[in-house]
Amino acid sequence: MALFLSTFTNKVDSKGRVSVPAQFRAALNNQDFSGIIVYQSFINDCIEGCDINRIKRLSDSIDSLDPFSEERDAFATTILGGAIQLPLDVDGRVILPVNLLKKTAIIDQALFVGKGSTFEIWNPDKFNDYLIKAKQSAKDKRNLLRLVN
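Above: the chain's sequence. Below: its structure in token form.
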């Protein structure tokens, strides 16, 4: 599975094209699909992204729920129904969907934030506001984090 680390800001052109950070592209090398999967985050005001293997694992988790439950339907609709496969072009760029750019207020700059097996794409100003809150929350709850063997 890919491991996305660090934070990068890249220019978004008038067609919605943005270069996926080189480190993220390197993490994507070992998969069946040459690109990224994106969908609107339902936690933060950003675009969430991952590799094809992660979305397959999410799909398997959703499939493990009662097939006729409201929860299964809500997760399938929100995550899988909203997921878009974006192929990388020869320059390592993707075209971000206009509806996601509008919903997240991303205009001319996209901030990529690595979060391990996933990453997020933010409007840089919105991310700076979120980062302040996230740092305080992490500091307040630092006793919950344990290294796994």
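The first helix runs from residue 22 to 27.
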